[in-house]
Each structure stands twice: as structure tokens, then as C-alpha cells.
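Fold this: HicB family protein
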Amino acid sequence: MSALSLRLPNSIHRHIKDIARREGVSINQFISSAVAEKISAIMTEDYLLHRANRASNAEFTRILDQVSHRNPLPGDEL
């Protein structure tokens, strides 16, 4: 594990302290968790963009053309 010196505005530090106390965790645990959540969100976005870039509109249309036509359920109409 590594140490990191972090400078935060007083207002953010105050919020972190209050929330960590309410959650029953240390400030360190709170910040570690928040950073992990942010990393997860960014990595998920990168993964989805990578998958989207591999997509083919022609293949998508071909697959949708195989779906039988049905009227939408009440409330699902466009």
C-alpha cells in the first residue's frame, strides 16, 4: 500500500469528515472507496466505448430485421 499527500479545500474536507463519520468509516476508507468508484466508472465508460466502436450498424439492422413485427403494448407506443 502506498501513501499519498492530498490537498483539499476546507469545505470538501469538512464534507468528507462528516460523511465518513455518518458512514462509520475512516476518512482514508471513504476516500479510497470514492476513488475506487470513480475508477470503476471511467473504466466502464472506456469498455462501453470500445464495444460501441466495434459495433456495426448493418449487423444491428440485420438482427432487428429478424424480429417479428408486433404492435407495441399499450403505453409503449412512440
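The chain has a mean pLDDT of 95. Helices lie at 10-23, 27-54, 57-65.
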